[in-house]
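quick q for whoever's on today - can somebody do inverse folding on this one?? i tried earlier but teh output was garbage lol. C-alpha cells:
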C-alpha cells in the first residue's frame, strides 16, 4: 500500500513495499503525511525523498549487520536507529559535498519527522529522541554571493520578449479554438486531419498509442501539417505531435513564464512564491484594477494588495483589461489563457497558474496540472535560452537566470525613483535590515549611492577651493563690515584689498600668509598665481575677469603642447573652475572678453611658472 499526500497541487507517494524495512518506512511515511498536512508545505517531495533515501540506506546497513529489516520500527528498542542515522548522514556528506545543500535538507527533513513522532506518541527511544532534537551532523552550507539585479538593458530585453511571447500565445490559442470549431471525431472525419486531432485532444481521447495505431509508422509519410507540428524529431514524433496539438488549445508551463516576468517586474512587493501560490479565489477584479490576496508562508502573513489601472482618456471608469501591460491587464489575460485548462481539467480549477503537458511514458496523453516551473524545459532559464523568431539563440541575459533577480530589479527601480532613507524604501514589505542585506547591495543602488557621495564631496571641495567673486556693488561697499564679513574678510583686509595691496597678479588674496598650498610657517605664498584658481583665499573682482579670460586662453593653448594626461593633471581643475566662474559671472563676461581681445588687459605669468608648467 502506498501512502500519498497532495499539498500545493503536488501529488507525492511513498511505497513501503519497495523497501525491506517496510515497517520503518510505514512509520516515517505516516509522519510525513501528517507533517505535510499540518504545515501545508508547498512541495512535499523533499520530505518524501528523505524517507526514501534513509530507507534505502537502512536496508543496506541492516543487511550488513545481519539484522532482520522487517522487525525495525521507530518505536522499537532492539535496534539502535541512532547509529543508522549517523551512518546515513556521513554518506550524505560524501554524496552531496559543499556547496550543495541537498544533504543538509535531507537530514533536516528526516530528523523533523522523527522528532514529530517523539512529541506526538512519546514512544521513540530516548537516545533517538535526543538525536532528532539535535541539528544535522553537518551545518548548512553558507550562502553564496547575493544575487544582483538585472541591468536596465536586460530588463528591457526581458520585458519586450515577454510581451512578444504573450501576443504569440494569444494568437496561437485563438487559432486553436478556430481549429477545434472546425474539427470532428477522427473516427468519422479521418486521422490525417489536423483539426480532427485537435478535437480528439480536447475530448481527451487521444494519446500516443492511438496516434501510432492510426498514423503511418514513419513520420515522413504523415501529412505536411502534422509533420510541421511534430517538428524534426523522428524517434519521439508521436510525443511531439501530441504535445504540439495540446499546445494549440492550452498553454504550456513555459508559455506562462512571460506572465511571471512581467508581473514580478511590476509588483516589487510580491515574492515569486506568493505569486506562484495564488489561487483563483485570491484574485478579485474591481472596476479599475485587481485585488490580490498574497500569502507569505515564511512570514506566516497574508496581505491584500490593490493594483489599479488608470482609465482611458475618454473611456469609462470600468477597466476592461484588454491590451494592457499593467498588473490588472496581465492578470485578466493570464486568467483568460489558463481558463481552458481549468474548464477541461476540473482538478486544476482552484489554481491560477495551470498548464497542460504530456503525462506518461509508454502511452502518453495530455493532462492539466498546476505549473511548477522547476522541470527541465519549463524553467525561467529555459525560457530565456529559447531561440526567438529569426534568431538562433535566446536572450543575452547575464547568469544566474534566477527569477528572484526580477524582484530585485523591481525593488532597485523603486529605490531609484523614491530615494530617501532605507526605512522608507523597505516600507511594510521588509524589515530595514532585511532590505539592507538583500536589496541595498544591488549594483544600481551602489552606483547611485556613489554618485550621491561624490556629488556631495565635490560640492564641499568646491566650497573650500573655489575663489569668491565680488560684484561691482560689493566692491563699492567693501569697507562695510557686513559686506566684508559676507566675503570672509576683516575690515583691515577689505581696506587693503580695495587699495590693491593684496593683488597677486591674477586675483586678490585675503591672506597671503596662510596659503593652503604652502607650509604653515608664516611666509608669504610662493605658488601664486599658479594655484590661485584652486585657493580658498582667492577673491575675484570684476576688473580681474579680463586677466582670467587670458588665462583660460593660455590653458587652452597648452592642450596643444601637453599630452592629455599631463594637461589634465596640471590645468584640468583650473579650467573647470574658470568655466564655472564664467557661468556665474555671465553678465560681466562680454565686456571682459572685449577688453581681453582688445589688448587692454595682459597676463603676467612668472617665468618660473611658465618653465615649470608649460614644458
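ok took a stab at it. sequence:
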Amino acid at each position: 500500500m502506498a501512502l500519498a499526500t497532495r499539498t500545493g497541487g503536488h501529488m507525492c507517494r511513498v511505497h513501503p513495499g519497495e523497501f525491506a524495512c517496510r515497517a520503518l518506512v510505514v512509520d516515517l511515511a505516516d509522519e510525513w503525511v501528517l507533517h505535510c498536512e499540518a504545515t501545508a508545505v508547498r512541495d512535499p517531495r523533499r520530505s518524501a525523498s528523505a524517507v526514501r533515501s534513509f530507507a534505502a540506506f537502512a536496508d543496506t546497513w541492516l543487511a550488513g549487520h545481519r539484522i532482520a529489516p522487517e522487525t525495525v520500527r521507530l518505536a522499537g528498542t532492539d535496534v539502535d536507529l541512532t547509529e543508522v542515522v549517523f551512518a546515513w548522514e556521513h554518506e550524505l556528506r560524501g554524496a552531496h559535498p559543499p556547496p550543495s545543500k541537498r544533504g543538509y535538507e535531507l537530514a533536516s527533513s528526516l530528523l523533523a519527522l522523527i522528532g514529530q513522532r517523539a512529541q506526538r506518541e512519546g514512544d521513540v527511544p530516548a537516545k533517538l529522541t535526543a538525536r532528532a532534537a539535535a541539528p544535522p551532523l553537518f551545518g548548512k552550507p553558507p550562502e553564496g554571493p547575493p544575487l544582483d539585479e538585472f541591468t536596465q538593458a536586460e530588463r528591457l530585453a526581458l520585458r519586450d520578449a515577454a510581451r512578444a511571447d504573450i501576443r504569440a500565445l494569444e494568437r496561437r490559442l485563438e487559432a486553436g479554438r478556430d481549429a477545434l470549431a472546425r474539427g470532428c471525431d477522427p473516427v468519422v472525419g479521418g486521422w490525417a486531419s489536423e483539426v480532427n486531432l485537435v478535437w480528439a485532444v480536447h475530448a481527451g481521447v487521444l494519446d500516443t498509442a492511438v496516434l501510432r495505431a492510426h498514423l503511418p509508422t514513419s513520420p515522413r509519410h504523415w501529412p505536411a501539417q502534422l509533420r510541421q507540428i511534430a517538428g524534426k524529431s523522428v524517434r519521439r514524433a508521436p510525443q511531439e505531435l501530441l504535445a504540439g496539438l495540446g499546445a494549440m488549445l492550452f498553454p504550456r508551463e513555459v508559455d506562462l513564464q512571460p506572465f511571471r516576468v512581467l508581473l514580478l517586474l511590476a509588483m516589487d512587493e510580491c515574492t515569486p512564491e506568493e505569486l506562484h501560490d495564488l489561487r483563483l479565489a485570491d484574485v478579485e477584479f474591481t472596476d479599475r484594477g485587481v485585488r490580490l490576496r498574497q500569502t507569505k508562508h515564511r512570514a506566516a502573513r497574508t496581505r491584500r494588495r490593490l493594483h489599479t489601472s488608470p482609465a482611458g482618456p475618454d473611456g469609462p471608469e470600468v477597466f476592461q483589461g484588454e491590451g494592457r501591460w499593467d498588473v490588472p491587464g496581465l492578470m485578466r489575460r493570464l486568467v483568460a489563457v489558463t481558463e481552458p485548462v481549468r474548464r477541461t481539467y476540473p482538478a486544476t480549477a482552484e489554481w491560477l497558474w495551470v498548464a497542460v503537458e504530456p503525462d506518461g511514458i509508454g502511452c502518453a496523453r495530455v493532462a492539466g496540472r498546476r505549473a511548477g516551473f522547476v522541470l527541465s524545459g519549463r524553467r525561467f532559464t529555459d525560457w530565456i535560452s529559447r531561440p526567438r523568431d529569426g534568431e538562433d539563440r535566446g536572450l543575452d541575459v547575464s547568469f544566474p537566470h534566477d527569477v528572484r533577480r526580477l524582484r530585485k530589479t523591481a525593488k532597485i527601480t523603486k529605490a531609484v525613483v523614491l530615494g530617501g532613507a532605507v526605512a522608507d524604501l523597505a516600507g511594510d514589505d521588509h524589515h530595514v535590515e532585511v532590505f539592507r542585506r538583500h536589496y541595498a547591495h544591488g549594483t544600481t543602488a551602489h552606483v547611485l549611492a556613489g554618485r550621491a557621495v561624490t556629488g556631495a564631496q565635490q560640492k564641499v571641495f568646491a566650497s573650500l577651493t573655489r575663489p569668491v567673486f565680488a560684484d561691482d556693488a560689493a566692491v563699492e561697499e567693501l569697507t562695510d563690515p557686513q559686506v566684508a564679513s559676507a566675503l570672509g574678510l576683516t575690515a583691515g583686509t577689505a581696506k587693503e584689498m580695495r587699495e590693491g595691496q593684496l593683488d597677486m597678479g591674477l586675483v586678490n588674496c585675503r591672506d597671503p600668509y596662510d596659503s593652503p598650498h604652502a607650509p604653515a610657517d608664516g611666509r608669504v605664498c610662493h605658488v601664486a598665481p599658479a594655484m590661485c584658481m584652486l585657493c580658498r583665499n582667492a577673491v575675484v573682482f570684476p576688473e580681474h575677469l579680463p586677466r582670467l579670460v587670458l588665462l583660460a586662453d593660455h590653458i587652452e593653448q597648452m592642450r596643444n603642447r601637453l599630452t592629455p594626461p599631463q594637461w589634465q593633471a596640471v590645468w584640468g581643475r583650473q579650467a573647470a573652475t574658470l568655466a564655472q566662474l564664467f557661468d556665474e559671472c555671465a553678465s560681466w563676461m562680454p565686456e571682459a572678453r572685449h577688453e581681453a581681445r582688445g589688448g587692454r588687459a595682459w597676463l603676467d605669468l612668472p617665468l618660473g611658472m611658465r618653465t615649470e608648467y608649460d614644458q
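fwiw The first strand starts at residue 3 and ends at 7. also The radius of gyration is 38 Å. so keep that in mind when u check it
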